[in-house]
Specification:
4 strands; 180 residues; 4-stranded mixed beta sheet; 44% helix; elongated; alpha+beta
């Protein structure tokens, strides 16, 4: 018998691992092998693809890695950093081992997800969506689209598991587990 999404419990959280710094030699090799632009227009297009590949491999793209991309493609670092910070899916810092993604789509927002997001940010001691708590235990992100389960909103995913019909008490219970 399967449990409904709002009845699932969080499994014990594994101990956090220190964030691994990006190997800039690896980034330089990647750029040499896969990202060689013929002109400035192509260089600007390749910058986004390179940043995405770096993040896919390392989990984030540091400013130093962005600098390698800019140097290799011959474009301004400011332009590469603008790309890196414009797209919500790209991160400049590593995520914590625990990731709480709150849905803030239309239905979840109408059902009160905004209040829950504020509560989570206050509880974690962060002031911006996408940040990691000062203790490094939880990264809190907000998905502004729809997670596709509006009937059980407000909804969130925590470490890949879905939780529905969230309220302040359920959010506190989830955070208590994550912050142990």
């Amino acid at each position: 018998m399967s449990q409904s999404l709002d009845q699932q419990r969080i499994d014990p959280v594994p101990p956090p691992q220190p964030a691994q710094p990006i190997d800039l030699g690896w980034v330089k090799h990647l750029m040499d092998e896969e990202f060689n632009a013929r002109d400035w227009r192509e260089a600007n297009e390749l910058a986004l693809l390179a940043l995405m590949e770096i993040q896919e491999h390392w989990g984030y793209c540091s400013e130093d890695a962005a600098s390698v991309v800019a140097d290799h493609l011959g474009i301004e670092l400011q332009r590469v950093y603008a790309i890196l910070t414009f797209y919500a899916d790209l991160r400049t810092t590593p995520r914590a081992d625990n990731v709480y993604i709150a849905c803030d789509g239309a239905a979840c927002n109408t059902l009160g997800s905004g209040v829950l997001v504020d509560r989570i940010m206050d509880r974690l001691g962060i002031y911006k969506k996408g940040q990691t708590s000062p203790d490094g235990k939880v990264t809190m992100e907000v998905f502004s689209g729809c997670m596709g389960a509006c009937q059980i909103g407000p909804l969130a995913t925590v470490n890949g598991k879905y939780y529905g019909r969230l309220n302040p008490e359920k959010v506190d219970q989830i955070l208590n587990e994550l912050l142990k």
